[in-house]
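Hey, can you fold this?
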Amino acid sequence: MGLFSRKKDKKQAEAEPEPETETPVVEEEQPTEEAPAEESTKAAKSGGAYFVSPHPDGGWQVKKANAQKALKKFRTKAEAEAYAKQVASNQGTTVVRQKKDGKIQKKR
């Protein structure tokens, strides 16, 4: 007999009470409180952020945090930012923009 082919008789179903099963107790983790400024830094360090930075050969690049290679290289910073925003929104992460000298300009 198949697993779903068994059907109980109405009389039999009323006569036999269904066994009670215990539900396991699951402890939920308490969220830790962090400052909002630390959140974006944490996302950037955890490998979730995308960086718009100057490329060593000229132009601009989009890299994922902690990556060796750039995802894509662009001629202008605006093009690189638009691409990074699109990728970050698809992945649910943030974009970190850098200036030409490598300093962080803005986190989004």
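Oh, and this one too while you're at it.
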Amino acid sequence: MFKVGDFVVYGSNGVCRITEVGPIDCPGVSQDKLYYTMTPCYIRGSEIFTPVDNDRVVIRKVMSKEEATAFVQDMPKIKKMPVEEEKKRELTYKQALLTCEPAKIVSLIKTIYERMQERQAEGKKMTSSDSKYFHIAEDSLYGELAISLGMDKDAVSAYVEEEMHRLQAV
């Protein structure tokens, strides 16, 4: 169970901070059931309530600083994801995001990035679907890394790029 003050990744809402744990004061809601009250870190003016025993939406603790640093070091080893059927590309993207697993999100980013490069070489633009999922994936990954590494979210992209270049030079 998480405690007040913990940072968690909560489904498509991204990084949230647990602000309360306990019953919620809402008509028709049992006072016997415990809920997490969370504030999304990157969605202003929003509050989320979810049962502590919720098993439908992924909720996990954000990486520690050490885990995040090691994860960034391992990013070059993560392979792009296979897209078995072109018609199921968007579904494949959605499923990767729903896992909330950083490695799958990096795999998704690499897949879309490579596809974007191929399309550009053919004189084509990035598809709107690829663009949408690329930005969602980056936002999710960089949001977690920002909290874990104690950085501004906008600085994470440059940090990751610098680390990738540094690792390739080694």
